[in-house]
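Progress against Task 2.4 (sequence-to-structure conversion) is shown through the following example record, which the project officer requested during the mid-term review.
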Amino acid sequence: MRMRDVLWQIWLNCGYFLTVAASGFFLYKLCAPFVRPRNGRFWRVLLFLTLAGSTGMVIWIGDPNLLYTLPVYFALFLLATRGDWVGRLAVCIILFCLEMSVCALLDTYVERINRNALYDVLVRLARPLVFGPLWLLLRRRLPRRGIGGRRGPDGPLPVPSDPENGGADAGGGRPFVGPPADLGLRRVPAGLSL
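Structure tokens generated for the chain above:
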């Protein structure tokens, strides 16, 4: 084996792990506003590895690998997060469907376009190039803090005052009128107009 071939293999393997980590980072950033990881670095790393590892899996449209990945993904995602289980399950299902559909489409159709040795490189680069712009487009629209706080017997408990997100103490105690802060729209103090 020539040195050039060895260096090419090292570059491909390192690039593979970098693209999987990049995809995991973008997906972690997409899901972080909606679920809360358990306390501790271990749980955050487990959530990141769950998201990243599932994007590294090769899957084609109609492939049964999806069914083998589903229970492991759900178990690890639900173990790594805390809060209302219905909300966590909903976010888990949404992210799983997003990840698997993007990966299946890329794996299936890039193979049909390019059957030579660059297929693996193109597919691995395409995943962060899909998840990255998706996060960049949505990041200002995502809520700053996690959703799914504590629940009381009659529903969610009130959120404590938070001046940063338009809570009761923002603006000198004046009440705010307008849409919720998580829509990305500006809040206006009562009595003022735009």
